[in-house]
Amino acid sequence: MDKNREQMDKQTSRGEQQDNSNKKQEQLDQFRIDDTKGDLTTNQGLKMSEDEFSLKAGERGPTLMEDFHFREKMTHFDHERIPERVVHARGFGAHGVFEAYGTAEPYSKAKFLKKGKKTPVFVRFSTVQGFRGSNDTVRDTRGFATKFYTEEGNYDFVANNMPVFFIQDAIKFPDVVHAIKPEPRNEIPQATAAHNTFWDFVANNTESAHHVIWNMSPRALPRSYRMMEGFGVHTFRFVNDEGKGTFVKMFWKPKLGAHSLVFEEAQMIAGNDPDFNRKDLFEAIEGGNYPEWELGVQLIPEEDEHKFDFDLLDPTKLVPEEDVPVTPIGKMTLNRNVDNHFAETEQVAFHPGHVVPGIDFTNDPLLQGRLFSYTDTQLIRLGGPNFHELPINRPINGFTNHQRDGYNRIAINTSNTAYRHNSINNNKPDVASPEDGGYEHYQEKVEGRKVRARSDSFKDHYTQVKLFWNSMSKREKDHIVSAYSFELGKCDMPIREMNIKVLSNVDLELAQRIAKNIGVTPPESGGLDYDKSSPALSQDNTPHMPDTLKVGVLIDDGFNDEEVQRHLEAFASANLQSVIVSEDQNPVKGANGTELEVEHTFDTTDAVLLDALYVVGGPDLSKDFVKETVKFLQKAFDHFKPIGATQAGIPFLREGNMLDHEGVITTENTNDFSTDFIEAMTKHRFWYREV
């Protein structure tokens, strides 16, 4: 009887569980949206006739406040994530100073650009697509945002390490980020674009082709934040004391040049040290090797706006430096690390609309949308409208206005008025005239029908992609082909085929090489008949110097004291960083008693974390030392890095058939080992080393 009752109770319990499950399913079902059917609507159910273009005053005019669809779409996107940033979540920052050369004075009345003026800055570097816990060395665009604390207020130069962007109109920013982020079904993959939704977007939104080829180039794998360019992307406007406007493109040019990792190396670094780039910046500043960049500008008279074969307001286009040279206008030095990552780097709030007199906007439709989006994003991420009161965001000249209260209000306002006009406080605070530093928008004539449209001048999506391809060296082209092949090889076949079709509109060789690698029938025709190139776009033409590069010194007891000391001193004189690596952490001793502190063992570092190897060895090496040294050398050789050897280190290179290759320096093939090894370090890589 009891068994029957127990059985019935179990059946009842299972039935109740099933009923509850069905009820829960019904609750969920009523909220499910099948967005594969029906027409696109707003969140209020209004069908929209256009979702590609924001509402403008004329095809090339500014975006209008009444564009409710853009505002709804962008507001929802800005508020998608809490608490980390939707994009640029993984960041690292540092403080510094900017000193102006004065060369911008004829074009901009901004006081921080006056000759000799020094302005404190804060810079935040970041990856775009990964979460805060992702790796530093993923293939991605990098953010390069700088806050200038000027005497006229904060100016934010919010840049990327690539000069163009995926889209032409800000209304599509949620779309491209949704596409590149992990797929919603399984949140895979993390911090990579190698998946269907991103490449489906690329194939169906061909305006992204230019930015994508930059992402497939070595530029997407910077060796260091200190060796990375920064581009403002948009065309801005300088305004001088006479009110004359000049179009301007702005750039950060690193003193050390723009250098990159090899893709396999970047993947290995992600496993060995996921904080590789941030640690590199932190250690450089702590060690007094303060990184420097020059701020350069391309200045374009307003009367030359339409002289190019592309639209100057198109953020998917760049102005070749050979057509408009870059003029240096100042130098930035980062010289102090943060005291607290959260309080400073995580809470800093940038906005391209934070400008000072002398800097103004254009009708670039991506820029116009960013002027709304950034403040809207900070409202949810930093808990309300008072994020400007956080110490890292406070202007050095203070703030005075009629804004009051709200979440996280810190200021204690003592005035009894918070409105204009007032008589109680003699109408204070009052507005300032332009002569007294009051900001005055550039007076540009704007007219046109209210339209959701794209100017015909924005419709060429391929010419500058071909320009970039034409400008690459052989090894850069090989990298681009390999990158496309790796990424598209992770996608379904229809996605691969669509992207090969897009690439065939750019360059037939490019499309055919990738097609063969990913199993797509290579196209037989296509490509643009366009042979212009811009040598400035190739990293082969960037400055090369040995400063701050890391040399792993593989060494054991019994080395020749005098010789090793002489070489290490020469390395230090060239500002190379020698890292002593041995089998254990005990100091290594030379034949005459010299001791060298061991910084790493073979277990605590890896060849991919070093820029070069100098192999010394010793007279009595263990099997483990030999085995690990061979592994280190093979990685360095495969990644085209300089290799040097003296004493007992030379047999390793002979046995590995490395002696007669480029960038391999020994005392057997040179009369001045230190000088020749430092020269090899200056070249960074030996790309055409025979394998």
What labels describe this entry?
17 helices; peroxidase; 691 residues; heme; 10-stranded antiparallel β-sheet; Catalase_core; single chain; 4 domains; Hemocyanin, N-terminal domain; alpha+beta; EC 1.11.1.6
Report what the structure shows.
Residues 1-38 have a biased composition (Basic and acidic residues). InterPro entries: Catalase, Catalase_AS, Catalase_clade2, Catalase_clade2_helical, Catalase_core, Catalase_haem_BS, Catalase_immune_responsive, Catalase_large_C. Residues 1-44, 521-543 are annotated as: Disordered. Keywords: Heme, Hydrogen peroxide, Iron, Metal-binding, Oxidoreductase, Peroxidase. Decomposes hydrogen peroxide into water and oxygen; serves to protect cells from the toxic effects of hydrogen peroxide. It is a single chain. The protein has 691 residues and is an alpha+beta fold. It has 4 domains: 56-382, Catalase core domain (Catalase HpII,  Chain A, domain 1, Beta Barrel); 402-427, no CATH class; 468-540, Catalase, four-helical domain (Hemocyanin, N-terminal domain, Up-down Bundle); 544-683, 3-Layer(aba) Sandwich (Rossmann fold), CATH 3.40.50. The chain is 29% helix and 16% strand. The protein has 17 helices and 20 strands. It has helices at 2-29, 68-78, 173-180, 196-204, 209-215, 263-272, 276-286, 342-346, 365-381, 463-471, 474-488, 493-504, 508-518, 561-573, 623-638, 650-655, 673-683; strands at residues 55-57, 91-100, 118-127, 142-150, 153-160, 230-231, 236-239, 245-254, 292-301, 327-337, 359-360, 450-452, 550-555, 577-582, 588-589, 595-596, 600-601, 612-617, 643-645, 664-666. The strands form 4 sheets. Strands 2, 3, 4, 5, 6, 7, 8, 9, 10 and 11 form a 10-stranded antiparallel beta sheet that branches. It has a 6-stranded parallel beta sheet with strand order 17-14-13-18-19-20, with helices on both faces. A hairpin with a 5-residue loop joins strand 7 (236-239) and strand 8 (245-254). Helix 4 (196-204) packs parallel to helix 12 and helix 12 packs antiparallel against helix 13 (508-518).
